[in-house]
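Case 368 in the screening queue. Each case pairs one protein sequence with one candidate compound; here the compound is magnesium ion. For every case the pipeline is the same: read the inputs, emit a complex structure as tokens, and attach any notable structural observations.

Predict complex for case 368.
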Amino acid sequence: MAFASIFCCGKCSDRKEQGKKQPTWRIFSLKELHAATNNFNYDNKLGEGGFGSVYWGQLWDGSQIAVKRLKVWSNKAEMEFAVEVEILARVRHKNLLSLRGYCAEGQERLIVYDYMPNLSLLSHLHGHHSAECLLDWKRRMNIAIGSAEGIAYLHHHATPHIIHRDIKASNVLLDSDFQAQVADFGFAKLIPDGATHVTTRVKGTLGYLAPEYAMLGKASESCDVFSFGILLLELASGKKPIEKLSTATKRIIVDWALPLFCERKLSELADPRLNGKFEEEELNRIIIVALVCTQNLPEKRPTMLEVVDLLKGESKEKLAELENDELFKSQKVADYNDVRPVAEDSYDSISEEKDLKHEVKEIGQDDS
Ligand SMILES: Nc1ncnc2c1ncn2[C@@H]1O[C@H](COP(=O)(O)OP(=O)(O)OP(=O)(O)O)[C@@H](O)[C@H]1O
Ligand SMILES: [Mg+2]
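Case 368 output:
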């Protein structure tokens, strides 16, 4: 079977090199997954995304799993499933959610992951766990660095290189130590050697899309860098990527954060739930990195390798240079807002294209 042959190419030994204690991947039977999830019971449902629903389950050995069950079976879904399976089978890194296995029986296509007990960043920032304030500053900083390292691995070390295309808070899962595990490579395509970008239909989630990707469908690593910048702002501030100010007005997080940073109002940028308990130097670093990542011009954005060094405080000179960039001169704020596509307009132009309708999902579609 096609899926089995994809899997047989996977190098399971890579897993050890990344220091992860996990069983190797295997094929699950539908019967076993039915038993584990109580027949895909509604009560076991963790949420729903572009592929279908994700269910919590427990195997006979007591281990907890998350099962992603494709909602529609079509040729397109089969291709996307194969892409995700192939990519996941190859990629192993401490900050990338690895695969436990899959099931392909009859019309059913399911992917099995380890269950992440602390769920996603989305659930802590805006969902079920947001009131518990479990994300103190140290954890946030670790998540920022860890998720950057996971994405940098996809961009620079995986062979061939991988563009994630759907970096967002629900795709950053948290393990029992609150370490980031970047999930969902379903949108990624393998980049052929030498190609600088692949033009394709726009996939991703509103609020995180780089302008050139949203408008021209031009996907490259720098689109992921843009999405990651949005995620950093969200992580530091606790705000959503797009905030509804009223029924008619929406504000994108960058347009809120940039003017505040130009005036160096750092404490206003920090999530109020931190109660002022944050490291100023680290917050400064996160905000500078986030804002340079979310520049309109892709060539002005850093690479993920640079992002990792900047976040770790290992590129102090570069950071100082960036801090003095024109971008952060307050007189530039007006110009910046002029060139940036207004959220409503640019997103309307996406939804008018029929092909994109199913690919672009509203933020907060599932806040669980
Ligand atoms: N291994 C896991 N452990 C715990 N929660 C998970 C796991 N995998 C997914 N989830 C959660 O289940 C929910 C649904 O996930 P799913 O990936 O289907 O949708 P999504 O992340 O919202 O969107 P997308 O389809 O773009 O990834 C999300 O809240 C996600 O964080
Ligand atoms: Mg997801």
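Case 368 observations:
- Residues 49, 170-171, 183-184 surround magnesium ion (ligand 2) (CB under 6 Å).
- Residues 1-20, 187-195, 331-368 have pLDDT under 50 and may be disordered.
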